[in-house]
Automatic annotation (TrEMBL):
Pathway: Lipid metabolism; fatty acid biosynthesis. SUPFAM superfamilies: NAD(P)-binding Rossmann-fold domains. Its EC number is 1.1.1.100. It comes from Galactobacter caseinivorans. It holds the Pfam family adh_short_C2. The keyword Isomerase does not apply. Keywords: Fatty acid biosynthesis, Fatty acid metabolism, Lipid biosynthesis, Lipid metabolism, Membrane, NADP, Oxidoreductase, Transmembrane, Transmembrane helix. Catalyzes the NADPH-dependent reduction of beta-ketoacyl-ACP substrates to beta-hydroxyacyl-ACP products, the first reductive step in the elongation cycle of fatty acid biosynthesis. One of its GO terms (molecular function) is 3-oxoacyl-[acyl-carrier-protein] reductase (NADPH) activity. This is 3-oxoacyl-[acyl-carrier-protein] reductase.
């Protein structure tokens, strides 16, 4: 396999891609987008099997041993991982005065420390190959903040500093680390919103609508492409203009 893929006019060689939380929602759309361009795609799932054309491994990002076992299984099945998309995430919204320490740390543990566990484990193979793509799924809330979301916003803002630090450490080894910051996307995570609240949010979005998961997925495949080889430590909003200027 060549070390660089310099142009989209060349037929890209398939790579091994791991998407955490790829069994549903945005993660599933990301996994499908990589499959559609011919890559070998593995997903972690805590609950259930992914589509037939992806390799599903059990994996809980809050558990280092589980992450290690999942990545090892993918490496044994497909070989070293070229692209990792750290997508698994949770919300546990609560006003600050009512938020317990566990409410706070459990969200940090999944969204931020979970990403650390996955990236630290997968980057080993990338360092050896002197090539790799790391894409972290953050949120517009990490940049804007959100009432009732101090835990979630802190976890998602932390991903920006994390990606930029990884960029400084590993940029010279052909590895990029970028952040995607979605706004409101139509998934189970946003299905729980009351219709009135959803309408209120939609009025604040310049695009006037929530996005489909595929709109986030296309940005992830682009960040993992050769065309994005010189983009690292960036935060790419996919939010219909909601977070402009942040
Ligand atoms: P969903 O709730 O639909 O899916 C979340 C995914 O994360 C599931 O696959 C879930 O697995 C997985 N997951 C959660 N906890 C863990 C864990 N401990 N270990 C492994 N996997 C875990 O959410 P979305 O698809 O909407 O969100 C995906 C990402 O996008 C998240 O990081 C979210 O914060 C972010 N995001 C979403 C937005 C939206 O509007 N929907 C907006 C901005 C960001 P399981 O099925 O086993 O629970």
């Amino acid at each position: 396999m060549s070390t660089t893929r310099t142009s989209t006019t060349q037929t890209p060689e398939p790579r091994t891609v791991l998407v955490t939380g790829g069994n549903r929602g945005i993660g599933l759309a990301i996994a499908r987008a990589f499959v559609a361009q011919g890559d070998r795609v593995a997903i972690t799932s805590r609950s259930g099997q992914g589509p037939d054309d992806v390799f599903t491994v059990a994996g809980d990002v809050t558990d280092s041993a589980s992450v290690d076992a999942a990545v090892t299984a993918v490496e044994e099945h497909f070989g070293p991982i070229d692209v990792v998309v750290a997508n698994a995430g949770i919300t546990h919204d609560m006003l600050l005065m009512r938020m317990s320490e566990d409410d706070f740390t459990s969200v940090i543990d999944t969204n931020l420390t979970g990403t650390f566990r996955v990236v630290q484990r997968t980057v080993k193979g990338m360092i050896k190959k002197r090539r790799g793509r790391i894409v972290l799924v953050s949120s517009v809330v990490g940049l804007l903040g959100g009432a009732g979301q101090a835990n979630y916003a802190a976890s998602k803002a932390g991903l920006v500093g994390f990606a930029r630090s990884v960029t400084r450490e590993l940029g010279a080894r052909g590895i990029t680390a970028n952040v995607v910051a979605p706004g409101f996307i139509e998934t189970e995570m946003t299905q729980v919103l009351e219709p009135e609240l959803k309408k209120k949010y939609q009025q604040q979005i310049p695009a006037g609508r929530f996005a489909q998961p595929e709109e986030v997925a296309r940005v992830c495949t682009w960040l993992a492409s050769d065309d994005a080889a010189y983009i690292s430590g960036a935060v790419i909003p996919v939010d219909g203009g909601l977070g402009m200027g942040h």
